[in-house]
Design the sequence.
């Protein structure tokens, strides 16, 4: 199974992202992430045998036990990759609580034998893939604030027309 761990987003943030995405549809060509799929990836695991899921769930529980729910505020749009085939995303004002979670999640996963590349972690929500940004200016993006309360192990099915993410195990952060 193709697996990843991500922070889920509250409705306030989802709604703002959906509005930004709707504005982008009028001015940027590319592949849009469906608004029910927005998330912040903390660790990408790739192909993992289904038999390891219980172990992963335990590791996620341990990693999240020392973290509380926190308030997050959207910031500006950013992009990775080539201007003609970019990944377009929206970031957060304060990256620290996401970075701290990602560090603990990854260190628990490393303990049970998973590996991660050393690239610095950049918390973001992907809005578009293969976005053609060569024509220049991006629209203003919508802002919102909300509470991050759930960290979830997802499976990702890429066999269809669009990726289907399924929540396998969700940890509720303490208030
Ligand atoms: P598609 O690959 O069809 O564009 P997707 O990227 O949304 O769809 P996945 O490739 O399964 O679906 O990725 C699931 C999540 O993990 C996404 O947030 C994606 O950005 C992230 N991800 C995928 N591959 C990696 C990787 N090699 N390193 C870090 N994060 C990754
Ligand atoms: Mg992908």
Sequence:
């Amino acid at each position: 199974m193709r697996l990843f761990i991500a922070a889920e987003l509250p409705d306030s943030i989802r709604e703002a992202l959906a509005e930004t995405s709707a504005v982008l549809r009028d001015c940027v060509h590319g592949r849009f992430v469906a608004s029910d799929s927005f998330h912040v990836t903390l660790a990408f695991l790739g192909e993992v045998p289904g038999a390891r899921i219980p172990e992963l769930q335990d590791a996620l529980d341990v990693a999240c036990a020392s973290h509380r729910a926190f308030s997050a505020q959207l910031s500006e749009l950013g992009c990775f990759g080539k201007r003609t085939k970019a990944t377009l995303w929206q970031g957060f004002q304060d990256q620290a609580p996401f970075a701290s979670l990602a560090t603990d999640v990854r260190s628990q996963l490393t303990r049970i034998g998973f590996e991660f590349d050393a690239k610095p972690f950049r918390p973001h929500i992907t809005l578009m893939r293969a976005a053609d940004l060569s024509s220049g200016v991006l629209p203003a993006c919508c802002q919102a604030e909300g509470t991050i309360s759930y960290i979830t192990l997802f499976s990702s099915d890429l066999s269809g027309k669009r990726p289907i993410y399924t929540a396998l195990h969700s940890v509720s952060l303490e208030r």
In short: The CA atoms of residues 98 and 124 lie 10 Å apart.
